Description:
The chain is of the alpha+beta class and 259 residues long. It has two helices and 14 strands, in the order H-E-E-E-E-E-E-E-E-E-E-E-E-E-E-H. One calcium ion binds at residues 70, 115, 117, 120, 122, 126-129.
Amino acid sequence: MKRTCMQTSIFAATLAIVFCLTAAVPAAPIVIDDFSTPNPAPFFLVGINHDNALPVEQAGLAEAVGGERDILAVVLGTPNPQSAQVLTGFEASLFVEGVFQVATAGNPATSVTLQYDGTDTDGATLVNARLLNLDLTGGGMNDELAIDFISVDAPGAPGLDLLISLSSPGGTATLTDIVPESGSPFTHVTSFAAFAADPGFSFKNVDSIELVFNGPGVMDVDFAIGRIQAVPEPSTAALWVAGLAALLSARRRRTESAV
Ligand SMILES: [Ca+2]
Ligand SMILES: [Ca+2]
C-alpha cells in the first residue's frame, strides 16, 4: 500500500514535470510568412508596367501572425513595359515551396515593402494599424529573425538593402542591413539584440512587422525569399535541448530509484 502511494506520488510528480515542460516550451520557431498563401492565386501578384506604387493585401496568413500580408511595390525611374514583377505563392516549375520574388525586367529600381499589421485597409502608401499581438520570442526561446533567401542579385551594389521595423505598444525597434548577393539559397539571420530599440519596445508584444527591401532604390536588384521566421539562436536552442535532457534524465533516475 505504501509502495503504491509512493508510485502514485511519483506518477503525479512526473505528470507535473511533463506539464511544466509542456507549458515552458513554447511553439518555436514562429513562422511570420512562408508565402504558401498566394496573393492572389495562382502566382503572379503584380505586373507593374509604369513607374508607380501598387499596394496589395492578402489575408489568410499562418495562425501565429494572422491578419494580412500587405505589400507595396514601387518602381522608381524610367517606366518600361514589364519593368518589374512581384510574385508570391507557388510556381512549381521554379520553386518547390511558396516564394516571394521581386524580379526586374531591364534595369528599373524596385522598392518593396512587406507589412504584417493585422487586417486593415491600405492605400497608395501602407497604413500601419499595429493590430498584431505577437510574442516573437515564442515564450522566451526565439532571439533571432531568420530570412530564407533563395537568391539575391544586386549587380554593382554591396547587396540588397533591408530595413526591418518592429513596433510594440511601448515603442519601436529598427534595423538596417545589407544582404549580400548570392545565386544559391542561404539564411540571413539578425539577432534581436542588433535592433536599435526604444526602451519601451518588447519582442514579447509585437504589434507590427515591416520589411523594406531596396528602399534606396538601387537599379536592377532582384531577390527571392522562401520564409521569414523568428528562431532561437543555435546556442540558445542547444541550451534548451540540454536542459530538457537533464530534466528527462532526472525524471528517469527518480523513476528507477523508486522501483
Ligand atoms: Ca491591409
Ligand atoms: Ca497595413
